[in-house]
Amino acid sequence: NAGVMQNPRHLVRRRGQEARLRCSPMKGHSHVYWYRQLPEEGLKFMVYLQKENIIDESGMPKERFSAEFPKEGPSILRIQQVVRGDSAAYFCASSPLGSYEQYFGPGTRLTVT
Amino acid sequence: GESVGLHLPTLSVQEGDNSIINCAYSNSASDYFIWYKQESGKGPQFIIDIRSNMDKRQGQRVTVLLNKTVKHLSLQIAATQPGDSAVYFCAENRGDNAGNMLTFGGGTRLMVKP
After folding, report:
1. Quick one: how many helices (H) and strands (E) in chain B?
2. Could you tell me the sign of the dihedral formed by the alpha carbons of A71, A72, A76, A78, in that order?
3. pLDDT at B4
4. CB of B90 within 8 A of CB of B67?
5. What is the pLDDT of residues A23-38, one digit of tens each?
6. Which of A1, A61, A79, A88 is at 20 to 30 A from A21, Cα to Cα?
7. Among A48, A55, A100, whose Cβ lies nearest the Cβ of B32?
């Protein structure tokens, strides 16, 4: 049973470009969460999604950031017009319906130059 | 705002000794707590969880203790091994309409000396 998959593992973007981060949840999991982690810090919640539905986006910056979890395919975290402050590790987690347990992917490390 | 925090940022222990990592939380409405282990360059790995209706739960070499009176959570690792070296995070689910969102503490780095 494959775990949560994220790609790419490393992403380098110049300021002003767009970054797309992908997450495939564990098989049978219907909930996806995105977190951001700065070096030597804890994870900060960004957004919680179910298929075709955003449940909670209280941790998402108001501009430039968006997320989706379509009926088919992976969840996508999209960052438009990236700035250096967006450099961080972005982790995706998934959980089955009705469970609090969240299983994390290996993360995508975004570097903005 | 409400948050989960830790007492010690770094803990250094000798191989074979027991380790205790502490965590304080401020939201009395939290009803679910998880400990995660994060090795360098990897995602957090689930270790053990506990619900607020329990005060102790044991796993393989790990024990989580929950003291709701003082809002304190601890992770005990028995016979610590070099492979236990990592950053450990506690996380809570607030148990309110926020759904399944987890709030993470800042992390404690555990260093195991051979």
Report:
1. 0, 11
2. negative
3. 52
4. no
5. 999 998 989 999 999 8
6. A1
7. A100
